[in-house]
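Need tokens for this chain, all 197 residues.
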Amino acid sequence: MNTGVIILAAGSSSRMGQSKQLLPIQGTTLLVRAVHIALQLQPGHTVVVLGSNEAEHTSILQNTNVHTVTNHTWQNGMGSSLKTGLQYLLSLSPAIDAALILVCDQPAVTTTYLESLVQHYKPSNKSIVASFYSDAPGVPALFDKSLFTELLNMDDAHGAKKIIQKHIAATELIPFPEGSIDLDTPEDYQRFINSNK
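Here are the structure tokens for all 197 residues:
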């Protein structure tokens, strides 16, 4: 199966007070860690969507083989970045069967976990395979190409979750309680660092 990966990394990290993408974690940064995980899964078709702090983020990705695209309207919301990433991914590989969407601030995500989402895709005969945590579906999530047009026409302000909720009957939910760990604030980050010493 020909799967592409889109890493959404365009936000300004306003609640963190600094670029979360540049935060040190496990000997690298949050953004580079997410890129390495995605490249191990899909080395040919991984796209990072940049926006705020584009120059700094581009510089730390120079030694990776990832494709980058800039969302110049990133302030409009997560949907805007998702559409930018999907459009670029399709320009690179029009024949992809599915797109896997992830963010860089979920430190529990691993290549093995992403592989499990892909492995559930075909046997499930579902259009979406999504993570399930905090009593709700979310990313990382894989979308079949049958939903690409809908994703490309979604509201700028809303992310993938709205599409998942609309098509919940066609969604395979994968329990991922660790997905609730996301690093949005300095307190989140410090708590994570302290728990992994």
